[in-house]
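It is time I had a proper look at our fold encoding. Can you supply me with one protein entry, sequence and fold together? It will help me judge whether the discrete encoding reads sensibly. Leave the record below and I will have a look:
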Amino acid sequence: MSKLAPQDKFLDLSDYGRTPGKLFANRLKNTRFTPIHVTLLFGICGLVAVYFILQNRYYLAAGFIILKSIIDAADGELARVKNTPSYTGRYLDSVFDIVLNFVILTAICYVSKSPFWVMLFAFFCIQLQGTLYNYYYVILRNKSVGGDRTSKIFEDKTPKALPGESQKSVDILHLIYTIVYGGFDKIIHALDRDAYKVKTFPNWFMTFVSLYGLGFQLLLISLMLALDYLEYIPSFFICYSVFIFILIGIRKRFLKA
């Protein structure tokens, strides 16, 4: 099952890991590996990247961050090829993402001797950017005919477990998800309350929005690591947040409900 109907597919600048992720997933299709195993693997890749940052080996750190993005795409692809969608995997993936974002940024700020409050503000900005991308993307997926609906526009209610997963696991991970993401979701929803009423988003707009996708954010971080621009990473993502208001302004002005 594709995430989007053919007419709704767009050039996703953050999704460069999709093709190698599909190849990896197809290799695992007839094995005992599950999407959860793949999620754990991308978590390990993220921690290895952190280790290399702390060791001042920035090329290797950048490589493992890119590898993390590829494997991050593979867990969802494996769930699709095995036809085993789950809320457990969906929430675990998101929780791992936010934890790794925090740890990677903390390591960068530690090595570059940036102030802790700058790191926290940059982390807040990165998460808010990613939340805007997810907000619009999930709206599009839910409105797309035959699209993937594992992710919900509003994650305020615990979903019923899908076949093959336990309700207890879904309950626990949904609670963790709402704790770590709930505040960001509320801020973005407050900034653009009527976005979910729009029938669809044009491809050009979603490509622009994908500049805030996690994959593209990690690509930017990897490039800046490789160029030894560590000290500029936090301030860059703080300034990069200006596009939040530009994107919301475009949506409200040209893509009205």
In short: The mean pLDDT is 93.
